[in-house]
Amino acid sequence: MLQGKRILLIVAGGIAAYKSLDLIRRLKERGAAVRCVLTASGAEFVTPLSLGALSEDKIYGDLFSLTDEAEMGHIRLSRDADLLVVAPATADLIAKMASGIADDLATTVLLAADKKVLIAPAMNVRMWEHVATRRNIARLEADGVIRVGPEIGAMACGEFGAGRMAEPADILAAIEAALGDTGGLEGVRALVTSGPTYEPIDPVRFIGNRSSGKQGHAIAAACARLGAGVTLVSGPTAEPDPPGVTTIRVETARQMLDACESALPADIAICAAAVADWRVAEAAPEKLKKVSGKSEPKLELVRNPDILASLSARKNDRPRLVIGFAAETEKLEQNARDKLARKGCDWLLANDVSPATGAFGGDANTMHLFVAEPNGSDVTVEHWPRLSKAAIAARLAERIAVALKTKSGPVRA
Ligand code: C5P
Q1: How far apart are CA 34 and CA 5, in angstroms?
Q2: d(CA 109, CA 251)
Q3: Contact 329, 352 (CB under 8 A)
Q4: Which end of the chain is more exposed for a tag (fewer CB within 10 A), N or C?
């Protein structure tokens, strides 16, 4: 909760400014007091009236307004806040912040700040990638400014790439983190699987897959950031062990299942691993050799255990919330609904992994959250925008915290 926290929200000129309206609503719901500074260009995108209605406060805009100064000097405006948030932060405002320019109310307030500053950049991909912006961002980060986003995705200008402002839920999570409000997974035990499994053919060869482990590792890290005690059971990946997480490295599906069962009891289980469906019935004890004149070796495959289904089916120590993933290349919605029912899990995050999406090994993903309702037959679907894997993890961890708080006992009754 952000009860009693005072946020000074600076809204600069970008098409993403409309998302700041939703951010204000979410901040208010959590008990924060929000005061807005709207730049002249920001006012081209959202009106003082809508910002004022949502924040239930006066909107500040002009440095040289005698009435504003009489009511609330710009220094006090800055000092009265617990956190300054710039959303959207345009390339121009970022450049001014990096150079310490103070030529309007927003920049003056930022220069006068003695509290943390959080920026949510939003701009065209070329502007974001421009060496000047890179330099300005590096400067601001070195100065201690906190940044959330931008995300990768389609832009209002028709281009595609990094530059979309982070979603309000992710900005909110960053605000809570900046204010030390960790947001609610304290005392929760989370079990997360991540990465591929390697199923041996012989001592040197294996059956594997292209999972990078990025999503599972990001989820483990996000849950830990919200205060959960996390055990991460990971197949072979190049990802480093997340800080503050107990990481158990395994190779095969059977080892992964054993490690998961040993990590029980847990309150939540999130199965993000790409577990091999089959293994070689009997791995050769010695390296298979090419022998001329002999027929080629045939691999006999057997089914691997399904870790998600096994955890969902546990009787006495079933986690309160079991979450699976579905990577689909076709008929996403139907397959996701079928999988949710078949695996017996509570939530399923599905995404399209057809090669064109670059989801495998990439840094961003478009997720659809399928939630099994308590009556067992209904499913609600939430379509998330294209987000970085880190932002997906943050959003999921936040959703879990809310679900655990609002329900005692199993999340799906
Ligand atoms: O059946 P499919 O592989 O598409 O299901 C994906 C979901 O099931 C993921 O959450 C994955 O981690 C989990 N899974 C598992 N054990 C398996 C196969 C999949 O936990 N053997």
Answers
A1: 8
A2: 54
A3: yes
A4: C
**Domains defined for the chain, CATH in brackets:** 6-178 (3.40.50.1950), 189-406 (3.40.50.10300)
For the chain, the straight-line distance linking the first and the last C-alpha, in angstroms and rounded, comes to 26
User: Positive or negative CA dihedral for 328, 331, 333, 334?
Assistant: negative
Residue 227 CA to ligand 1 center (angstroms) comes to 26
Contact between 344 and 312 under an 8 Å Cβ cutoff? The reply is yes
- Residue 144: partners with Cβ closer than 8 Å, 6 or more residues away: 116, 117
323 contacts 345 by C-beta, under 8 angstroms:
yes
Residue whose Cα lies nearest atom 2 of ligand 1: it is 326
pLDDT on residue 70: 66
Q: Which run of H or of E encompasses 108?
A: helix 105-111
The pLDDT value given to residue 265: 96
Distance between CA atoms of residues 112 and 128, nearest Å: 26
Instruction: List residues near ligand 1 (CB under 6 A).
Output: 193, 253, 271-273, 275, 277, 304, 306-308, 324-326, 339
